[in-house]
Amino acid sequence: MRIDYRIEHPVALHASFEVAGFTVLLGASGEGKTLLLSAIAGLIAARGEPFDGLPPQQRAVGYLPQGHALFPHLRAWENVAFSLRGARRREQAMQWLERVGMAGLAERWPASLSGGQQQRVALARALARRPSLLLLDEPTSALDPVTRDEVLAELIAEVHQAGIPALAVSHDPALAAVADRLVLMHGRRIVQIGTPEAVHAQPASGAVARLLGLRNVQRGRIVGAPGAQRLSWPEADASLRVETALPDGTAVDWHVPPAAVRLHDPAAAPGDAIAASFELRQTSPHRNYLGMRCGKARLWVEPPAGYELPAAPMLSLPPDAIRCWPVEEHA
Ligand SMILES: Nc1ncnc2c1ncn2[C@@H]1O[C@H](COP(=O)(O)OP(=O)(O)OP(=O)(O)O)[C@@H](O)[C@H]1O
């Protein structure tokens, strides 16, 4: 389904993109993601397709606002039945609750349900309207990481099974990772669209790289003519070797993958290595990162297994591992 909406107030925003399967619109706080969903749902004044000019109740959207917004004075099943009409509304509501694994808690009040359970009831309520488009505002924000992954897996399975295109807006890179399609918003416009694989392989800008949650996105400037270029990194008072076609003086966002950063003992460090000090360790089941302070900046390093950090480590960055993007005007 093609979305094309233009908002003038309270901020100017234009978004045009295709929603297919589980589509995630990723954007920083304040970009206008909630406004866009409200516009599509008909809750604020805006022009656009689909649903242009229709009052909210006539728009075939299932909208899950932030915090789920269940009616507190209605039981779980009554929340789901809210938009249903006819003698079978209770039965139908129960069928939707069954689908999201909540039939056993149908008589509960929203306040007695966990965040994940409320989310499922809200999803059942949105689906019960038989929408042609599902809108989800920050669907993972109220959930702890374990619940988040479970609820998300169910949500996506449900979206795929129901065959309803879903647009989720978020600034959570974890949500972006499970999308069928990613839409990146920066500076109140769409800056990149693609599968998570394609976007991760080629982020269009430093802003996109930050939105994807990449570690080690820094600011700098290209200095020198092609062939003899350096990357000036003021925060660390460093000048790095770099391979780029960008001209002398270009302000850049740049990125180096943590696994590409080399750690050295000072006695064996290359001439242009940067002095660093250990700040923190971040360990997860599959990854082990060291946060290293370099002047005013922190660089994340992913050392080889069993690596013993020297007392005064030095860091070097292979030029071919550094990716540079010109800084955008509005960045
Ligand atoms: N009713 C309003 N009056 C004035 N400004 C508003 C109003 N609602 C939103 N804004 C402004 O519009 C911009 C976009 O807001 P919006 O809530 O859509 O951002 P968002 O991308 O959803 O952010 P977040 O991720 O923090 O929820 C923000 O700068 C916000 O301050």
From TrEMBL:
Gene3D superfamilies: P-loop containing nucleotide triphosphate hydrolases. GO terms for molecular function: ATP binding; ATP hydrolysis activity. Residues 1-212 form the ABC transporter domain. Keywords: ATP-binding, Nucleotide-binding, Transport. SMART domains: AAA. It holds the Pfam family ABC_tran. This is Molybdate/tungstate transport system ATP-binding protein. It comes from Dyella marensis. The lineage of its organism: Bacteria, Pseudomonadati, Pseudomonadota, Gammaproteobacteria, Lysobacterales.
